Amino acid sequence: MEWTIDRMKQFVVTAEAGSISAAARRLGKAQSAVSTAIALLEADLGFDLFDRSRRSVQLTPAGEVMLLEARELLRQAEGLDQRAQSFAAGQQPKLTLALDEALPYLAVGALVKEISERFPSLELTQFNGTATEVAEYVENQRASVAFHFDRGPCSLSFAQKHIGSVAQGIFVARGHPLTKIKKVTQRDLAKHRQLLMHMEDFADPALSPSVWRSDSFYSIAAMVADGIGWAILPLNIAEYEEYRLHLQELPCDEFTLPVLSVRMLWLQGHQPDATTQWVQKRLAELLHTIPWSL
């Protein structure tokens, strides 16, 4: 068979337009050219696509089936053409991101949606995990770049860049004894169990002699919501729909909580490509648009 994409397109347009003359006007071609293209396509396929015994153009049963196939073929051809144009313009064919599960979900969700719209030909792989896990994805070269909360010095094998910050607060479960104190002090906090973020080679300093630890902010938030203790949490975690009705922020004027820095990690010697640079810039912008970011 020697049918072409162009003839398939003329067939589809004719079927949708309802006549060869209407199809010719839509395609900007002579009516005779469209008629010849369809006749040649039918000759290549070995059967009629249209029933010519009637005044109006109507598909044969085989033509109805072929119309579905032709539409799918043209869709795939358009996708191939778009992808080829993207690659010719310098866009990377694939991108693998490793994202800290504790990053603000509103910013991350908006970022992924915008990536799909801006880079329709991109093949994206997304890994999620704790701050330590996403760094390991890059170190093991399973991901090209990671975005996570800065939890201390990173390996010398990484290059890094600060892209934003997220505010923190002290939280307990609603009804916890600490909620009955108007101005909470460090001495008050020390009387109750503290739930701490803990990862390999890093741990937040304890303010209470009674401590439980976890490597996940979501796990810590769940324990706080269950009344197990108090914790310092990123405001976006406390605002997560599963926790916000169960958590209460405590005012404590004795010390100022540091913000959590968000950084991008990649391997030394691997310069981020243009697509990755756009992702970094856009995530930085999105982090600045949410109320708990700084």
UniProtKB/TrEMBL annotation:
Transmembrane residue ranges: none
Keyword Repeat: no
Classification via PROSITE patterns: HTH_LYSR
Keyword tags: DNA-binding, Transcription, Transcription regulation
Domain HTH lysR-type: 3-60
CDD domains referenced in this protein's UniProt entry, alphabetically: PBP2_LTTR_substrate (cd05466)
Record PANTHER family: HTH-TYPE TRANSCRIPTIONAL REGULATOR, LYSR FAMILY TRANSCRIPTIONAL REGULATOR
Family, per entry: Belongs to the LysR transcriptional regulatory family.
Protein name: LysR family transcriptional regulator
Organism encoding this protein: Herminiimonas glaciei
